[in-house]
């Protein structure tokens, strides 16, 4: 049984994430303790609310260092909703430009859509070699957000790199935005797998299978 820590930094659907992970067979600890988060087989970083507030809470529990140390050692991390957004360089919400964790280039900004927030079920366009979305073609996932990453420059055509580009999953609401990223040990989803029924459970199972 894989041990998963859900990082408690004052922002997130902690209990729903905990229950969803338990249902797919993980041993789950909800914690703000750095060593517990570092020692777990997998770390889940949830997030609900404003980007800047989430970053303030993350810094209060040394979350940037925890995420950075895990990734430096190839230890899996999964960000969910705002827990995905804070992995990017910056977030611009309500006129506040806040620094993120900087694991990926890109800016979290308002979606351009006739109706916001984007709330409800939506399909996604995952790459064929996706691990997270294996077996989930044409499935729908549950979104609740008004902000997202509409331009993800990493991995686009340009200078060659010895590193494999991230696998990026997209969705559309008004315009296109990043719905998921798989980048070595770091994975994330804009939607809530813990609220996405059987499809979300399968995605969490797929992630658990990547833990060593």
From TrEMBL:
Subcellular localization, as worded in the UniProt entry: Cytoplasm
Reactions listed under catalytic activity: 5-[(5-phospho-1-deoxy-D-ribulos-1-ylimino)methylamino]-1-(5-phospho-beta-D-ribosyl)imidazole-4-carboxamide + L-glutamine = D-erythro-1-(imidazol-4-yl)glycerol 3-phosphate + 5-amino-1-(5-phospho-beta-D-ribosyl)imidazole-4-carboxamide + L-glutamate + H(+); L-glutamine + H2O = L-glutamate + NH4(+)
Official protein name in the record: Imidazole glycerol phosphate synthase subunit HisH
Positions in coiled-coil regions: none
Keywords on record: Amino-acid biosynthesis, Cytoplasm, Glutamine amidotransferase, Histidine biosynthesis, Hydrolase, Lyase
First-listed, main subcellular location of the protein, grouped into a coarse class: cytoplasm
Catalytic site: 81 (nucleophile), 192, 194
UniProt pathway: Amino-acid biosynthesis; L-histidine biosynthesis; L-histidine from 5-phospho-alpha-D-ribose 1-diphosphate: step 5/9
E.C. no: 4.3.2.10, 3.5.1.2
The organism's place on the tree of life at top rank: Bacteria
A Pfam family annotated for this UniProt entry: GATase
InterPro entries hit by this protein: Class_I_gatase-like, GATASE, Imidazole-glycPsynth_HisH
Gene Ontology molecular function, alphabetical: lyase activity
